[in-house]
Amino acid sequence: MERLTAPSIVTLPGAARRVMLEVLLHGPLSRREVAVRLGLDPGHVTRITQSLIEAGLLDETDGRGAAGRGAGSGGRPSRPLAVTPGGRNFVGVKLAQNELHAVVCDLSATVVAEAYRDLPDNDPETAVAVLADVLREFDAWSPLALGVTLGAQIQHDWTVRVAPIVGWRDVELGRMVEAATALPTIVTNDMIALTAAEHWFGSGRGISSLALLTIGVGVGYGLVANGRIVTNDDMGLGLIGHEAVSNRGQICPQGHRGCATSVLSYSGIEAAVSAALGRRVSFDEVLELFTAGDAVACAVVSDAADAIGSLIQRIATLAMPERIVVSGEGVRLAELTWDRILSTASARRPPDATPLDVSLQRIEQSEWARGAAVTAIQRSMGASVTGDATTD
Ligand SMILES: [Zn+2]
After folding, report:
1. Residue 324 CA, distance from chain mean position
2. Pairwise CA distance, residues 301 & 346, whole Å
3. Which candidate, 372, 329, 328, 381, places its Cα nearest to that of 103?
4. From ligand 1's centre to the CA of 263, what distance in Å?
5. Mean pLDDT across 100-110
């Protein structure tokens, strides 16, 4: 089957796409601001925005803030433009072991519907059949395109090369999903999807470089540099998870002691505390014990905090992003130890170095699926997922 073409949101000349993208990423903006930012003739921008309003893609806002003042002296007041809420919809799907999470997002990546399904097994055929079933439930939203994401190495935004968690190898998932749903589909690694959402619609809005560090079941890393997500064929192997961060910790499945996975992942932390206390202790319970001052939990959580600080320090030094965001399902650990993390992260920076811009980001379980929807939005906006979002 021929691969479906992602629908172009802006089937207008390149300037219209640039206007649309500018308002999507930086809006609300007045027509005048759009013209200045893009170096376009104001009259041209007015004609373009009119066609985008008529197409239901842009709306005039209620004119809050400075952007709402008149476009020219004595001229008719020009209200700032924003992307029409619900004007176009996209589906994002996160596949994981025995579960599937799906969301519908509008063009601004606002989640408007959500679905969760248990999967009876981890066969690709089962996942695709359940996904197609969820898509029928989303019919009323008339989605334009679909993004699918999972913890995997992905080739050409289409083929799952290796997905250890679900046990897949060389699965042409994009083709299977398009055949089952008739929607243009993009398949991406889950850290790429999460980074895409953060880049366009989260902490990365308005900046050109950003690093994302996630903790939870595994340790993840995403990087935006010069307005592009940085990736290569090894994305999906979880390389940062095997960075050496401690002399202690459990032994990871690859045999390293003290790698980020052994010190920071749920399983590493649970194993360390369980072994010392002689009973099974969950990650959440470890955090409770830490808060209560339990010595074992304090030692293990403090090691984890130091590991996060050490990774932040390396990321800041080597990748030089403007901002670093710590996120993932296990971010509560970082919240509880934030001062220690910051102190470790900054310890080796010379006094004249720029203070680190590092923050915590709590995420909902649906955020991965939302990231997948963002990859579909980016594709439909004519931006390569790992391409330049802010310039043409
Ligand atoms: Zn390791």
Report:
1. 13
2. 19
3. 372
4. 9
5. 96
Q: What is the pTM of this model?
A: 0.90
Residue in 269, 353, 271 with CA at minimum distance from that of residue 305: 269
Q: In 185-293, which ranges are E strands? A: 185-189, 210-215, 219-225, 228-229
Euclidean distance between CA atoms 178 and 127, whole angstroms: 13
Band of the pLDDT at 199, cuts 50, 70, 90?
very high
Whether the pLDDT of residue 11 is over 60: the answer is: no
DSSP states of 144-173 as a string?
Answer: --EEEEESSEEETTTEEEEETTTTEEEE-H
H or E stretch at 99: strand 99-106
With a cut of 60, say whether residue 101 has pLDDT above it.
Answer: yes
CA–centroid distance, 76 to ligand 1, in Å, is 63
Ligand 1 centroid to residue 236 C-alpha, Å: 14
pLDDT band at 164 (very low <50, low <70, confident <90, very high): confident
Q: How far is the CA of 260 from the centre of ligand 1 (A)?
A: 7
